[in-house]
Amino acid sequence: xxxxxxxxxxxxxxxxxxxxxxxxxxxxxxxxxxxxxxxxxxxxxxxxxxxxxxxxxxxxxxxxxxxxxxxxxxxxxxxxxxxx
Length: 84
Prior knowledge:
The protein is an all-alpha fold. The chain has one domain. Helix content is 70%, strand content 0%. Helix 2 (16-42) packs antiparallel against helix 3 (56-78).
């Protein structure tokens, strides 16, 4: 069964508030993986690995920015408002 169908079966009838909590829990680890792999790829030295595309660095910059944006969106829309 696909992840889509698994999540729909498990949480399809949950309230919107519960779905936000589930979304946050599911997405945090995936976003961390994207950010981690982007950081690792960003450590590649194009002087050592010479077969990289010319715009490899900008790809990594874009991936890093996308990970940061996803985390910011997730935090802004699912973080509890009651902060001390």
